[in-house]
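Pair request: fold both.
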Amino acid sequence: MQGSLTVERMCQLAQVSRASFYRSLQEQTPVEEDMGVRSAIQQIAVEHRRRYGYRRISAELRRRGMLVNHKRVVRIMREDNLLAVQPRHFVVTTDSDHQLEVYLNLAARMKLTGIDQLWVADITYIRLKAEFVYLAVILDGFSRKVVGWALDRTLASRLAIRALEQAIAKRQPRPGLVHHSDRGVQYASGEYIAMLEKQGMIPSMSRPANPYDNASCESFIKTLKREEIYANQYDDLEHLRANIEGFIEQYYNRQRLHSALGYRSPEEFEQQAACQTGIEDVKATTITLVARLAQSSTLMLEPGTQTPSPAPDLIPAKETNVTTS
């Protein structure tokens, strides 16, 4: 009966609103419609191993062409016991009580336009039945993709270097990339800084005792612990490593919808950015830095000091453009 007429045109001819039309359809098959929504929610929850909360499930439903009110999603998830695992309290683990040189926070000054302009790094511990192990990760600040990670019972400083080596091997970044981290001793060590300088990377560090300066990496670690580590038990280090690899490489980078990326996965976000601007433009890094911060030794603070980065309006007018193409 519809023929070539659109729903909007039919509603105009019948002098009824579109809302009334769609409501009449739902009233005709309320049970079938509710079961379809419930089935889709259950399928998404199972596919993502109950890692998704109601916001991401609502976003995934929209991607599948189903417009469902978020309050209804919450109700169905509560009724079916599908609500995601709740996070635990934040615990400070950074060892910044050292006399090594620390660097000004450059990440806060940057406006990212593509990949491999800013990397953010962090390290955390994971408790097994009989021991603690460390996990070091490096994320691309533009796409939130994990570009390097290392898990072991070795020293945190060695683990951080292994994660950096993996990231460099995977991405082959060009000189000028800013590497941001907290003030932990593993990132301030001479060996780590020497490796950054060898690759033409510019070090950047958070303010003291302020994890929110490194928010994207902190957010990833919180997600990893809530959705993978706290939801499972591991027999040994190898069992943990296999699960972490699956979570990072197969799930987080490729499948998990990220709210900061418009509910897209990191890889999908990078692919769309590459299609819009061209891969060479995405990888090209154009960074405007104050000459004293980018070139001179004043980029480093005195050992043991905890002076925060100067406000932008206090920066001298002289600037230099560092462009790699």
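--- second member of the pair ---
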Amino acid sequence: MTRFGRRLAVVAALLGAGSGAWGAPVLAAQEHAAQQEQAAKQAAGQIDIVHHLANSHEVELPFGIVWHLPEGWKIPLGTAANGQPRFLDISPTKHLVYLVLAAVIVALTFVLSARSISRAQAAGRPPKGFAGAMEATALYIRQEVILPNVGPHGEGFAPYLLTLFFFILAMNLLGLLPWGAAATGNIAVTAGLAVMAFIVIEVTGMRTLGFKGYMGTIFYLPHGLPGGIGGTFLKVLLLVVMTPIELIGKLAKPFALAVRLFANMTSGHVLVLALIGLTFLFQSWAVGFAASALATGVMLLELFVAFLQAFVFTLLTSVFIGLMRAEH
């Protein structure tokens, strides 16, 4: 089987829960083949960029230590039409580990910062150090990004949007650490964040505008249309044209959020690995130093992008919520 064929078989096995059914023995065999291919590439001095970017059931640690995550956590879903078993694989993966780690870091950071700020306020002095920096950052995002875009009485959305910003930021920064992984480089993670944003946006519109007002965001008709037979015909024509556009617009917002975050976080890592791979390709000290300098510059740019993408995701979500709350 060719290398493309082996990878295609692995992808098909991972999607078996939805499309039906390769089964555990075939999946294990294909994963073993992929591991053998990776070992052969390492022996030949090659770098498999896809291996370092893709999700897996292994977490790489310093000094060559590999943490093998448990596998086989599968929920049976019956059998497919061809009689093969179907299942939903919920086994933990590398990106899940770093996603949970980011959530724990964000929770501990703000719990400890809140306690430090409370002690400083009780002593009658302003907070200093890391706690003061976190308070200043949270206040800036709240006052300059969330409230102006969400609109009047938007304080209730601040906890969700602040959590969104710092959670995405933590996941982005974890991907810049040695042996780390960016969970936001997984389209499933960014899609999950986008789906949650979509639910918040649409539920906000239903609660703010009411049923009739919310339906107006789907079946949109501009004000001031003429009456009579001509006006009725024009309304029907506009509904036929505008309704699909409005529906596409609703779906395009979360799609853009998911793809933008995923693409920006993945492209930077691909570029860094490609530059480092030049050293092994040319096997030259001069190329190695030049590639390392370029990779360092890209990593510094990635640090800026980590903050920027968390900011942009939060900003656009705030804007979409504010637009939905406004009357059309």
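Observation on the second member. Confidence is low (pLDDT under 50) at residues 1-32.
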